[in-house]
Design a protein that fits this description.
32% of the residues lie in helices and 16% in strands. The chain has helices spanning 16-34, 79-90, 108-119, and strands at 59-64, 70-72, 75-76, 97-102, 125-128. With 133 residues, the protein is α/β, with parallel strands linked by helices. The longest helix is centred in the N-terminal third of the chain and has 19 residues, at 16-34. The chain has a domain at 59-128: Nucleotidyltransferase, domain 5 (2-Layer Sandwich), CATH 3.30.420. The chain has three helices and five strands.
């Protein structure tokens, strides 16, 4: 004869499967964030530099592609228009960080010309994009 179960016995919830599911979801989100990249410029072959550092603040990206074409935040423009757009950013009161994203095949003179035009603008800080070898 089987005895009836005690109706006053506390119910138990087995939380081990729930913990396994939570850890699986957490692992998925951690792994997926590792593969997120932020591309702010046009695709160019950046030169390598061992002393490269990340710049964590808001950035304006000037790209000089292999043919020497200029673009500001992926919008194609010439040197005069580029300087005017950066000047407008500098007039907002914040010190914009302008990153020059130049292909390694671009002549040094062209990069220096762009840097020279941007350094005239007061309050603009410049950086050169590189990649770690």
């Amino acid at each position: 004869m089987r005895l009836p179960e005690d109706p006053d016995a506390p119910l138990q919830i087995n939380i081990v499967p729930m913990i396994d599911v939570i850890f699986a979801i957490l692992t998925f989100f951690i792994m997926s964030t590792l593969f997120l990249t932020r591309s702010q410029g046009l695709p160019v072959n950046l030169p390598g530099a061992v002393t490269a550092q990340n710049q964590p603040q808001s950035q304006t990206v000037v790209t000089i592609d292999r043919q020497g074409n200029l673009s500001l935040n992926q919008e194609s423009m010439n040197l005069d228009t580029l300087a005017a757009q950066v000047q407008a950013l500098a007039l907002t009161g914040q010190q914009p960080l302008v990153i020059i994203n130049a292909d390694q095949q671009v002549s040094h003179g062209q990069v220096v010309t762009v840097m020279d035009r941007l350094r005239i603008i007061e309050g603009v800080r410049l950086a050169i994009a590189t990649q770690r070898p």
